[in-house]
Write a structure and sequence with these properties.
- With 145 residues, the chain is α/β, with parallel strands linked by helices.
- The chain is 24% helix and 39% strand.
């Protein structure tokens, strides 16, 4: 499972012009599910996302995690994160989970995030979404479980 986190001042995801998820200060997580992933890998990635220290402390150093900083979490499914780009000029998605497995793990991830942390917003799985954000820093990290 791969997650691209971006520290944001605000983020929003829309489907058909309607906002389905918004946060103020916090993390935007683009979440990709691979065929090898399971609930344990989702739990590991969630722990990293919630505990990764990317917010500034009183001295401006990245020492605070999302929970300590008190920000929101916006989770958006992003199957292109698991693309194999090692060869050629066209991505291969053979590493990606089938849609049913990916939906199940995406929904599990969001449920677990909401059980452990608030506020959590999300996009719509497999929808054509428009994501807007104001990246803070910019600060962006690729996390894997």
């Amino acid at each position: 499972m791969r997650g691209l986190i971006q520290r944001v001042r605000h983020a929003r995801v829309e489907v058909h012009g309607e906002a389905v998820g918004t946060i103020d200060r916090g993390l935007l997580l683009l979440l990709g599910v691979e065929a090898k992933d399971n609930r344990e890998s989702a739990d590991r990635l969630l722990r990293k996302v919630l505990c990764y220290r990317v917010f500034g402390d009183d001295n401006g150093r990245m020492n605070l995690n999302l929970q300590q900083a008190g920000g929101g979490l916006l989770v958006v499914s992003q199957f292109t994160l698991v693309a194999d780009t090692d060869r050629g000029l066209r991505p291969s998605f053979s590493r990606g989970a089938d849609p049913e497995q990916a939906r199940t793990l995406y929904e599990y991830f969001i449920d677990r995030a909401r059980a452990q942390f608030a506020p959590v917003a999300s996009g719509v799985f497999a929808a054509d979404m428009q994501v807007s954000l104001l990246n803070d820093g910019p600060v962006t990290f690729l996390l894997e479980s």
